[in-house]
Structure formats: structure tokens, C-alpha cells
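Q: How would the C-alpha cells look for this protein?
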Amino acid sequence: MLISYFKSPSSIAQYRAGLAGPFLDQFVSWLADRGYQRVSIRRHVREVAHYATWAASEGLCEISLDSASLAKLRNHLTDQGRFREPSGNQNHIYQSACVFVRFLEAINVVHPSTEHSKAHVPTLYLEFCDWMKAHRGTLDITLASYRLPVVNLLQTLGPPNLVYLQPLD
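A: Here is the predicted structure in C-alpha cell form.
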């Protein structure tokens, strides 16, 4: 599947030689199945290769590419002042590493993070997702990117005041 997205044999060989290499073809398929565009798939593969190189330099193995390694990567990037881009967005390597770890969890290579399972998702957010899918045709991957800001907004606003949902007389 990598050959559908990368033409250079040396690049493909380099990507496959790293810790993430054995999973990259399946990762590309997984991304494509979730609606990722070509440019995003290529970026994620390149950044995952950087993540795997960093992990190998830290002495990690492929089954250690989990949420604990993400925390180490975050600390490493924070120490270097590179965790946030000037725009305020997270570093691309970190973003792609998070997607890759989610993929590894989905195919049962690593154990799912307990942080994901403990996270409380407000009912209003789930209703928002249902509405966005039904009325706007929004993909799950897009809604996943909305999760943190929307949940943070809902927590900041507090319990919903449903008066505004009642019809006016």
C-alpha cells in the first residue's frame, strides 16, 4: 500500500526499515478507510517514520509505541520548545504519533490507553456528533478532531441550560 502513496524506492525502504515499518502498509489502508486524503496519509507516514526513529533512539521497541511513549515524546518536544507550533497547534510528529498509536491499539498490537476509556464524553457532544453526521455528512475522523475543543467548551460553560431548546410561543 505504501507504493500507492510514495514512488521513491529509497523512501519506501527507509520507512519500512524503522520500528513502524511492519505496520505501515496496514496503517495506510486504515487511514484511507477512515477518509484521510492522500496528502494527509503521506504526511502521517513521514511523521510516523520520524516518531519511530526517535523511539528507536530512546531504546523503545515496536510494542512500546503506546500511550506511554507518546507522553515521553510530548515531554521531549516540550523540553526542546517544539511541542507547539507558532500557530498554537501541536507538533506534526506528535499528532501523527497519536494517530499511529490509536491505530496500533485498534489492531491490538498495544494495549489501549486507560486514559481513553476513562475520559467522560458529555451526552451533548455525542448528540452534536450525531447531528453533524446526519445533517452535514461529517466523517468520524473530522469529529474526532473536534472532540477536545468541544468537550473543553462544554466543560467551561457548565451544565447546559436547555431553555433555549423550547419553542417560543
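The CA atoms of residues 58 and 72 lie 9 Å apart.

The longest helix spans residues 38-57.

Upvote if useful.
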